[in-house]
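FAQ: What does a multi-protein file look like?

Like this. Sequence, then tokens, then the next protein.
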Amino acid sequence: MNTAMRPFRFVLAGLLACAAAASAQITQIVGDWKTVDDKTGRSYAVITIYKAPDGRYNGKISKMLVGPKNLRCPECKGADQNAPLEGLVIIRGMEYDREHNQLVGGKVLDPESGKFYYGKIYPKNGKLVLRGSLDKHGILGRNQTWIRK
């Protein structure tokens, strides 16, 4: 092999290894998750977290686990007003923070109140933690821990 090509191959191998590690980390977050209410401990829905065409991450209610299947969001605003809960995008425009292995930025919709909150999502002990807060720093808010479906 040409000696000039050796450094290039080393750099290329390093980049591929980094890309594979980042891909493995994001797979800890994307996918289907059962919500667990932090107050009651009940599972209400399955949320699917996915990469959107714009490169950001969203999450939608893919299945309701309780109540009638035709539940709607009367408190939601705009195009989401009175939208069916199944299919409703409740996590919007989050970006992957590779350094901390979490999704940040974007907004999280509370279908009960129709209000949006700042959000952060990260894996912890095989589960997923959603931190919704009134402020960007996550000081005034609460956590929900979801389990892999």
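And here is the next protein:
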Amino acid sequence: MTLVRQAALLLWKDVVVELRAKELVYATVFFAAIVILVFAFAFLGGERPSVDVSAGVLWVAMALAGTLGIGRAFEREREGDTMRALLLSPMPRAAIYLSKLVAISLLMLLVEAVSATLLSLLFGVSLTEHLLPLCALLGLGTFGFAAVAALFGASLGRARSRDVLLPLLTYPIVVPILIAGTRGSVALLVGQPEGLATAIWWLKFLVVFDAIFITLGLWVFDPIMRGDS
């Protein structure tokens, strides 16, 4: 079987398990909604928050909920000793990494859809004017975030403090993603004539970032996980 087909089979396994349990979906969506509500109540009774603040809230909710989902996704594999079985199987470990990257990205995209809807309702931000570029920013940012976090989430299998180490290792590397996503979103939501050009520049930056870290993840995932097999 090809690498893509093997990754697709593993992805389907994760999707079926989640559709039955619905544990990660409920936990991450609820957590993201709480983050949005906390910020909304912080501005209650005062002036409506600026576009900069609204865009920042969206990306903060994405990052926090994504970290929660990634940590729990790999914890589930360890509880059933599934990760060890996958590492002992003859399939290439790059397929395991790709399947986790896509599964985490799908979960985060669902969280972002709910977060964006709540943000539009509670903060009065219109997201439909430049919906396509905004979706591209969120999608590329999500894949870059998942590429980094999936690598660390898998490599921290035997660490006792993995729940603490995962965000400590992930966030310093994904800071460029959060900056690019926030600035690109602000440029689109402000509605200035040069906003789309600015957002496209940040989109190109995210494409380069994703290409580098997805390639790096495929390259180093095997040697990192070799000690766990």
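Q: Is there any per-entry metadata?
A: Some entries carry free-text notes. For the entry above: The chain has a mean pLDDT of 83.
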